[in-house]
Design goal:
Layout: H1 2-49, H2 52-57, H3 60-70, E1 109-110, E2 116-118, H4 121-128, H5 132-140, H6 149-168, H7 173-185, E3 202-204, E4 212-217, E5 227-234, E6 247-250, E7 266-269, E8 273-278, E9 282-287, E10 296-304
Antiparallel strand pairs: 1-2, 3-6, 4-5, 5-10, 6-9, 7-10, 8-9
Helix pairs in contact: 3-4
Length: 306
């Protein structure tokens, strides 16, 4: 009886050992799979964090730019019985903020969790890009059709020289406001109240004896005391001789210094045109090279004085 009992117990024990061994192997297999999956997930996380775009996103300068745009994000309203009257307040930017701009831009200060404790320069810049007038100005520069390569070069030159000239001046905000107001409120071709020399000068004493058929202002050109473009036409009787009077230009207003005394301005002409006689009231023009009969030449003239 004892032998049968022992045999039965040994059989049950063997079966239990076999079952436990199978369960243990399955558990170990599951653990290994979980460990492999965890290591694979960690590796993917490491690879994701080391990708170029992720590294760049964590650069302080890029975080500054994103923060500036994020600050303009509309406030999310939580459904309530009584709606909140709190609105996103638009910050004010004055000229003082431009005086501390630098290169490279000063970056903000962030902790390990990406929370900001000090704003960087680009935050202010990109926040300004969200303002309506800035976006309207930028969009206004876009043309219906792409400019030609030559046109792009002109745009670049105009912008570069505008910045150069402005950087050499020392005007106040009121002075610039006055200049812009005068520029956009003046009628084209009429004298500006701040500059008496924007009136239209007169072409007189055309020297027909020098075979000058006509001298007029070139079509669609600027014509005032400071700058003008004239068109000279030689008659069929012969060439217009060099170093001989063409005509006289009478200024719209006599040139004067700040004390009201007569001033002889400087005169510059293109293509060999020059002033043989200059006084406060006008100039006598000549050319350095003859103009062939029955031909027309355009000349630019710049006049200046203080």
């Amino acid at each position: 009886m004892n032998d049968k009992t022992n045999a039965a117990m040994l059989g049950m024990l063997a079966a239990a050992v076999t079952s436990w061994d199978s369960y243990d192997k399955d558990t170990q297999r599951r653990l290994r799979n979980l460990r492999d999956d965890a290591e694979d997930a960690l590796q993917q996380i490491r690879e994701f964090r080391s990708r170029g775009e992720q590294v760049r996103l964590r650069l302080p300068s890029v975080m500054d730019a994103l923060l500036g745009i994020a600050l303009a994000n509309p406030t999310q309203t939580t459904p309530e019985i009584l709606p909140s009257s709190t609105k996103l307040t638009r910050p004010q930017m004055d000229e003082g903020s431009a005086s501390d701009l630098s290169w490279p831009p000063k970056t903000g200060t962030y902790d390990s969790q990406g929370r900001v404790s000090e704003l960087g320069e680009l935050t202010r810049t990109y926040l300004a890009h969200t303002f309506q007038e800035v976006r309207a100005f930028i969009e206004g520069m876009a043309q219906d059709k792409a400019p030609s390569q030559a046109g792009l070069l002109q745009i670049n030159r105009a912008a570069k020289q505008l910045i150069y000239v402005l950087s050499t001046l020392n005007l106040t905000s009121d002075a610039y406001r006055h200049i812009w107001t005068t520029l956009f409120s003046s009628t084209p071709g009429s004298p500006s109240p701040s500059d008496p020399h924007l009136g239209v000068p007169q072409i007189t004493n055309i020297n027909a004896a020098n075979n000058v058929a006509s001298i007029v202002f070139a079509p669609n050109s600027t014509k005032n005391d400071r700058e003008m473009r004239i068109r000279v036409t030689a008659s069929g009787a012969g060439n217009i001789a060099a170093q001989t009077d063409l005509c006289t230009i009478l200024f719209a207003q006599p040139w004067q210094d700040s004390s009201g005394n007569p001033l002889i301005p400087a005169v510059i002409g293109s293509k060999g045109l020059y002033a043989s006689v200059t006084n406060a009231n006008g100039v006598v023009l000549q050319v350095a090279q003859q103009i062939a009969l029955n031909t027309t030449e355009d000349f630019s003239i710049l006049v200046g004085g203080r």
